[in-house]
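Hi R.,

Here's the chain you asked about this morning:
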Amino acid sequence: MADTIVLIGAGSLQFGFDTLGDIFQSEVLKGSRIVLHDINAETLARVHKRGEQFIQDNNLDFTVEATTDRKAALKGAAFIISSIEVGNRIELWDQDWRIPQQFGFKQVTGENGGPGGLFHALRVTPPILEICGDIMEICPDAIVFNYSNPMSRICTTVHRKYPDLTFVGLCHEIASIPQHLPNILETPMENIHFRAGGLNHFSVLLEVRYKDSSRDAYPDIREKAPSYFADMASLKAVIDQLKAEDAGPTPGSDPVFRENYKGWSERWMFKKILDVYGLMPITTDSHLGEYPAWAHHTVDHQGVLDFCDIYRQFILEKEPDIELKLHERVIPIIEGLLTDSGYEEAAVNLPNKGIIDNLPDWIVAEVPAVVDKKGIHGVDLGELPRGYSGLLYNQVAIHDMTAEAILSGSREIVLQALLVDPIVDKADAAEQLLDFMLDKQRAFLGYIK
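And the predicted structure, written out as tokens:
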């Protein structure tokens, strides 16, 4: 039994309700004390009330508390699950996306990569560092799971500031693999072994084998995946499956979007990586297009706009509730830690420390990991293919300078972080953009001098 599980950002209805539903399903976690924390007292109270009611209605062996006092919430914490944003998420995302475009920078969505990804990281990482400072003071042995984006930039900065903190990044993008591989390879997922690695949202399959024969499945992927992703029937089958599972809005779930999907998939970054590098990315959505400078000329921008519209509508209109249905992978990981299971988790974000030979030790990489009572241990992946690692090296430099910019609060270092990004191709415009954004988002970026 875990003594205390703390949810930071629990007033976010989707995160709070979904994570409570995940915890309530766990036999291993029965008897746990769950503490909900948020700075928004009104939304926090709503999640807390529903959690208490759900426990009562279903006669569950859990207790749930809520507090806006972070230090009080952290007392006795064994596990901390954090998902926070600052300000108005949609409004600030629009600024991150559109304003750099006005200054001439061709970024795709501006959430995790490009200039928008930098400003997002500059806003959200400082409050996460404050949370981590409290954790180091109050419950330094707690294991912290982060869901906030930009994942790699946040995690790299946290580990640079607090190298002794166990801070693990989790992202659900790996979930696309079980959706697609069985259809591509025409065999059940139970017959497929795979490992992936790289950086968050920029990770690729490194090994794929058929379990029954130990045969390398990558030749079949390279042969079959292009036509699979161009085939409307295959895509529709996946979409229908996701809709049947109530997985939320997906590419193709809107009639207009569905008409555009074939052209989108044929020109998508996914296909370009597969064609040129012979590697299958683990994500098939717009995230992948945020990083290389040439991505803007490869993606279908109508598809990106449609997807973002659907996603924003989903955020604004969804009425979430607690469901006994697994949404994320953090609870199986916690169970594995408590039961010494030794199972292999497909993707976690950890300091590299030799897991990938040709990336620096300090960068937070997305890798598979073995989970047991001693912790979460990245699986050695050796060297990434040289061509693909070349794409990642650009992001390594960006992550390095992003962390330095946040920790120093220096405008000069922020400008350097902008100029090291391959998407930023005009120095004078970059400086003008920086001054504009520092003024526009002063409430969050006032620490930069």
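Confidence is low (pLDDT under 50) at residues 247-267.

Let me know if you need anything else.
M.
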